Amino acid sequence: MASYLESEPPSPGESSGDESQGVEATRICEKMKLNQRLAAKELVNTEAKYVHNLQLCASDIRSHLHELPQGDLDVIFSNIDDIIKVNSRFLKDLEKAGSEEEQISLLGNLFLEFQEEMENTYKVYCACYNQALALVETYRKVPKLQKVIHDVITALVPQACASGLSFLLVMPVQRVTRYPLLLQKILENTPPDDEAYEALQRATRAMQEVNSNINEYKRQKEIATKYNKLEHLTVRERLARINTHSISKKTLRLSQLFKQEAGIVTRTFLRIKPYECDLEMEGGAVQQYCCFTRDLHLLVFLEFKQRLERLVYHPLHHLSKALLGPQNLIKKRLDKLLDFERTEEKLAEMGSMTYEEEAIRHTYQALNSLLVSELPQFNQVAIQWLGQILNTLMALQRDLAQQVLQRAERELGQLPHSHVSDFDFRKLIEDTLDKTSAQLQSFCQNFQKVLPVPVRQPLQPAAERQVQALMSKYSPSKLYQVTSNISGSGNLALTLQKGQIVAVLQDRDIKGNTSRWLVDTGGYRGYVPAGKLEPYQVVPHDKPSMQSGSGDGFKFLPVETPRSSTHVAMPVFQVVAAYPFVARSNYEVSLQAGQSVTVLERQDKKGNPEWSLVEVNGQRGYVPSNFLVCVPSPTPWGWSLPTGDSSLSHM
Amino acid sequence: MSWIPFKIGQPKKQIVPKTVERDFEREYGKLQQLEDQTKKLQKDLKKSTDADLAMSKSAVKISSDLLSNPLCEQDQEFLNLVTALDTAMKRMDAFNQEKVNQIQKTVIEPLKKFGSVFPSLNMAVKRREQALQDYKRLQSKVEKYEEKEKTGPVLAKLHQVREELRPVKDDFEAKNRQLLEEMPRFYNSRLDYFQPSFESLIRAQVVYYTEMHKIFRDLTQQLDQPGHTDEQREQENETKLSELRALSIVADD
């Protein structure tokens, strides 16, 4: 043990003082040595006790508290296990020292060795300590659980039962703050020229550093939690949508788009089930298509959607949520900066600050340093993650394509034209479609074609005369037939029977109403509703036709009837046979009712207009002119022009 | 049946034989069903192609947004990734458009044309129905006169009504016959008509997905580590998430 007094040769004038000083020095030296040893011993002993208590707390008490949920236990005891590990090792190393002298020199170095580890474990514990305390408080309020806790503690650690769990939980916090004090005490009692002095000094400083770091860490953590809770957003902050984080913008929008895309896939794609309406076509390409789409819907697309959700959408969602915290803190920092600058100004002016202002400064600085240290790391991880997600997206698309392709090609292989190249196939399809659409056209026309209107009723003789009379006065185009009985009412309204022929004089009445027409019945004139009139085609015959039941007789009427000049060739009409006619000689040709004929001559060789030379079905012959009817074309009640298709139906 | 005072209870005398009616009903029923299915298929296909287009557009939007983000300027690797993705999406969009066009041309158009025949068919059926009504009406009139006493005026009237009846009856029978002939033909024509459409549908998908597969396979080989299973990817995501959460600036949720 070296004496701390300088071993200078005593100056001649102080020899007596020297001796007393020497004795004094030695005595002080002895005392210091004792103190040092005591302090060291205290440290070691307390350490042992501390570790023992910790273990008690951790293993025994905790295991007995199985009534509490595991999550809460984790919060309360946080990383006490790590602390126990570190400190047990520390203790073991401490006790390794043989003599007390060795111990002291060991002490300093040991602390330096363990400094970092201790800092890391204790800072976590201390940061969580407040939370743990809060939790214990809540349990205190629940009498049943409180009793359980109390009983357990009383059984295991009788001296602590008064204060409960909090007494035990505070131990690590107390311990770590005591280290600097204990070391300080040893240091005070160690002469500077002791070989262990330097180590001890450094150790003391190190432990003080540890403590301040722990404090800093704790503060940062608290700030982070305090400001991360969104409830603390003020109105101003909500309005200030300063978005300084570019990743955030990107991911938020991305996740929205993915939601939409996935939504579209679900909503529309899966709801459309084209394979259900198979047009009742069995076999052929439809079969393949049905299998194909059914597969797609039930398997492939669902799988794709699930994978998309799991591997792309959810991570994006998490990422965008994770971005909120830093964004908040950044905003907060800006605010705090303003406060900080204000205090700076005040400091410049006044040179001192109140306690609150100091706190403001510290808050800002803590926040700032936290962000500065962690933001770069955050950004990097976020970008990497985003890149990963995009890669996943591409892989998913590839897999989807592969699966669909597999199935589609399988079905395609079963189709007839699978070997045809794409270009040829398209040509082929176009041709086929052209053909089939022409076919459809013909179908359409078939259905549209209306069979000839039921043949005009042959007129009564009186009516015939009436018609003739009308025709002599008016042009045939003005002749109309009444389609249903008209009972007139009001001024000048006529009462007419169905089938009567009238001539239209005007297609409106005096007031301009076009639904009432002025007609001439040959005898009377008056107004009738226009809806009940139908244009009447004058049958090109001039004698009343047969009245007998059968319609296929004909009458030879050799008497020529004076032709009225109004009996002129009709404007563009088609001639149709009104009644069936059986040919009885070579000169005649048979007719079927409704058959279309071509009139070659409207009179026979002798000029008899009662017979017409017609061509029908490729045959020529004479038929009674009475049997022929002109119908205008094209109107709803005529033939449609015969198409090239042979589906013209015959009666 | 003249001794029954109440006419309502009388069964209608069947003018048109039951078998004919039944046949007609059956054929027409089939065609009505066909019409419904055609319409539904057309609507569904239209919705499907619209959804196709919308999805493709949103994919392009995603990649364009990514590209326009300032992050690309900061990180070269990221920029490469996003540019490649963007190119891929745009190409896919072009192919998709082509696919939709092809489907439009070879499936939806023919469907529409097929459906356009139905209105004419329905009109023709209506006309037949009208003719049937006229026929029935006149027939009952004839029967009414036949039951009366054969007096002179009655006979004349009877004769006249019979005259009226004849063409109407012929008309109805003509219509009936025509429809009975044409309807099955039309119905059966659908088989040949639609085969090419469905074939084309599958082929269009094949073409599209071949391209898609090629593009994305190249992309992933170039940029991603292919061969990662889903579990591995999930694991990676978890790792990143926990890395982020370990930082104190990230809120715990």
TrEMBL record, chain A:
GO molecular function, one term: guanyl-nucleotide exchange factor activity
Superkingdom of origin: Eukaryota
Gene Ontology CC: cytoplasm
Keyword Nucleotide-binding: no
Location of the DH domain: 35-217
Span list, region Disordered: 1-22
Residue ranges occupied by any SH3 domain in the UniProt entry: 475-538, 570-633
Keyword match Transcription regulation: no
Alphabetical UniProt keywords: Coiled coil, Guanine-nucleotide releasing factor, SH3 domain
Signal sequence coordinates: none
Protein's UniProt name: Rho guanine nucleotide exchange factor 37
Domain spans labelled BAR: 215-421
Coiled-coil parts of chain: 200-227
From TrEMBL, chain B:
GO cellular component terms given for this protein: actin cytoskeleton; cytoplasm
Location in the cell: Cytoplasm, Cytoskeleton
Superkingdom, natural source: Eukaryota
InterPro entries (alphabetical): AH/BAR_dom_sf, BAR_dom, BIN3/RVS161-like, Bin3_BAR
UniProt-listed Pfam families: BAR
UniProt record, GO biological process: actin cortical patch localization; cell division; endocytosis; intracellular protein localization; myoblast migration involved in skeletal muscle regeneration; plasma membrane tubulation; regulation of lamellipodium assembly; skeletal muscle fiber development
Protein name in the entry: Bridging integrator 3
Species per Swiss-Prot/TrEMBL record: Monodelphis domestica
Protein's gene: BIN3
